[in-house]
Each structure stands twice: as structure tokens, then as C-alpha cells.
Design brief:
The chain has 22 helices and 10 strands. By secondary structure, it is of the alpha/beta class. Among the domains are: 252 residues, NagB/RpiA/CoA transferase-like (Rossmann fold, 3-Layer(aba) Sandwich), CATH 3.40.50; 72 residues, no CATH class. The protein has a 6-stranded parallel beta sheet with strand order 1-10-7-4-2-3, with helices on both faces. A 4-stranded mixed beta sheet has the order 8-5-6-9. The longest helix has 22 residues. It starts with 8 loop residues before the first helix and ends with a helix. 42% of the residues are buried. Bound molecules: iron/sulfur cluster (SF4). The site of iron/sulfur cluster has 14 residues, from helix 14.
Length: 469
Amino acid sequence: MKSPAPSKTKKLIKEALGNGALRSAVFKATESSALSRQKIIDQIPYWEDLRDKAHLIKKDVIENLSKYLTQFERNCELNGIAVHWASDSAEAQKIILDIAKQNNVTKVVKSKSLTTEEIHLNDFLKANDIESLETDLGEYIVQLNDQIPSHLIIPAMHLSRKDIGELFAKKLGVEYTEDPAQLLLTARKILREKFLAAEMGITGVNFAFAANGSFCVVENEANAHNTLSLPPIHIAVMGLEKIIPDVSMLPYFLKLLPANATGQKSSTYVNFIGGPTGSAYGEGPEQIHIILLDNGRTKILKDPVLRESLYCIRCGACLNACPVYQQIGGHAYGWVYMGPIGSVLIPQFLGEKEGRLSPFLSSLCGACTTVCPTKINLPHHLLTLRSRIVDSGNSKFIERNAIKIWSKLGSNAKVYRLMSRIASFFQSKLFFNSPLRVPGYNKERQFPLIHSEGFRARFLKMNGDKKNG
Ligand code: SF4
């Protein structure tokens, strides 16, 4: 299913806010994820050092991306891994389709990968008569439900057990149950058959190592392991920013990622892929292809401020910490990346017109940054994007002009004082000293009370009080 457009986010938020079951499921899940995370972090006294180190590694990678990617490409080729560069979704889709056609592939299994969601791979393969099945349980559920994931780590976070029981009964023809163990058994039985029949496996990449041309996929369900080891062909789709210099730096991330993502000390499986069968590594599929996807990343790279958003390792912790995400879930953001990091990425990937509302989906409380393992300054980037969206004329006409008028009035002391007095007069005579009613604005918040004395008089008085105090 294609993700809805972020420009429709207002409508999507209204729908989410009106859906009590969704809000309750998302709130419970984010709260419990945040608590599990905290429990683990409390046991890691050097947690802040890990974050500092990860930030520095990512900074180095992003500043020297082309050097590391060239090194990675060279070493992959030495290992027998075919490297393909894709500038956008269409190119990545075409590369995958060509490989599938050359090898008569009609059945694909996939493990969870946001990068493949970004290029709408399942829809594309389906349109080309290739069955593409998600094998991560949460992803399998949202695929059955014809949806995209609503969370970076917990794709079916928005659904209750009841929802999933009803979905399985309707789509798989099994008896209704809410028992997670039974639901899991049903999915497992179907997926095992699919793993054995698949001619191609597609995964994402968590970390790739420039120094030796290998990469790793981190997971908990062993579905990625089956996806990349059972079918004879493996394609890994990797965002350019997933590279790190060498495997010696992985342990920092292998501590930070599971603690932040799922509240685990370590992930259950870390799969290392070093080359096809017959290569120095000796195991795995006969063909391995890696697609290095740009899709807007090099544009972000050129931005000296916002390029920090490429440090993201998609742990999902900022979503769980965000008071806005906790109320509306992921689908309301309208794209595959959601929550605070989604709000920063959407305008950069999709443009300031399409993503004009996304940076405003934040209270700027800063909770996201305090949990981010790579210390991305998300509120700062949200503010930068807000200001760029206003400057580029993509904000609302009324808002734009109201601010222009306000700035004109505010820069002339006499006019400002006069306007304050008029507003204060209206407030006392027409609204009986209650806050002014401002159409539109009042739908979401209350207008602040205007002080009868005015700012200047109060400021001088306060200063006088201080001097006398
Ligand atoms: S921005 Fe930071 S906290 Fe949010 S998903 Fe990315 S790495 Fe995790």
C-alpha cells in the first residue's frame, strides 16, 4: 500500500485523535517501550560515553561519506558482492526487477526494512507479478492489513490483539483468537512454507563496514536470518548513511540500538553478510547484491546544518519519547518515517511543499534529543525547517501575513504600545477580561491574556523592583 501524503497530515491527525482504540494502543506501547529502555539504560553507567562515541563516529562518516562508500564498494566487489548505485526509488526498483527477471524470480521474502518501504517495493513487485512477503511478524500483520508500519521498530503498534485476531480470521481463514502464542503459530506456519519456496530474499542493512566490504542485519525473530540465508539470491537495500568505517566500531551501536529500540541488553541475532557461497566466508546465497540508495540523501548531505539527521540509526526511541507521537501514532505523519525524526526527514526527502506541516508536529520539548543515541539535535532541526518553510512561502497565507503585520507593528514602539492598548481595551470591554477569541487559533489553544499595563510599563517596573530589591 502506498503511504498517504504528508500534506494530508491535518486530516490524518483528526482521524487519529478520533480513534480512541488507536490512541490507547499507541500510548500504552510507547509508555512501556520507554520504561523498558530506561530500565536497561540505568544498568549501563557508561551510557552517555556510548552516545558521545556514536555521535563522533556518525559525524566522521557523514563528513567523509564518499571516501567510506568508495572503500566499501571496492571491498564488496573483492568479496563477490555486486554493488549497485540507485539515485532514487525508480532506479532502485528497476535494479531489483532486472535481477528478479534475469533469475526468473516470482516469489520473494523480505525482512523488515524501512529503506524498502521508502521505495514502495512491495507494491512495485506486486504490480510486476512478483509475490513479495514480509516476514517480520509486525510487518506481516501490517502487510495483511494493507497498511504501512506505524512505528520504526514496532510496525503494528497501532493494532490491539483483538484487531490482529480479527485480521487473521478474515484474511487467513483461521479461527478467531486473541492469544498471541496462537497467532504467532499461525503466522510461523505460513511463513516457513514461504521461506522454503522463495527464490529471492530482500533485507535492509543496519550497519555496513567500509574496511572489509561486509554488512550486518540486526533482528530478534530470525526471519532476517532465514531471508538472507535460504533463498539463492539476496538483495540488501541500504541507505548511503548506513556505512561505518569498520567492524571495531559496531559494539557501540550494538549496545545503543537494542537498549533504545526494544529495551534489550542485546539483540537476539546479529547477521553478518560477507559474500556469497564460495567466497572467503563460505556460507550464504549464491548471489548477493547490495543497492546503495541515495533517494535524496546526497542533497541532505550538502546541508551543513540538517545533515546531522543522517546520523539516525532508526532506533525509534524519539517516537516513544514524543508527546505528539504518543497521541497520534505513526500513520498521521503520512510517510514511512514518523515521529520527531520523521518530522525532520519528511520535508528534506519530499520537499518543503509536501512536507510543510511535518516540522510543526512537535511541542519542541526536547525529549527526543535526550534519548537519541547519536545525539541528533532534533528540536533545533525542526526549528530550522519551520523557518525555511515560512521563508520559502510554503506556510499558510493568513499565518504568513499575520506574522508580517505583527513584525511591522512590533518594530515600532509607539504603534506597538497603541495596539497593545487597543487589544487590552477590547479584551476588557468585549470579552470581560477573558482571553481574546481568535478564529482558527482558538481551535487548538487559548490566546494569552493581554496585560492591561503593557509590556514596556511592566518591564520598567520589574527592573525598578530589581534595582530597589
Ligand atoms: S533520531 Fe535518534 S532517537 Fe530517533 S530514531 Fe533516529 S537514532 Fe533513534
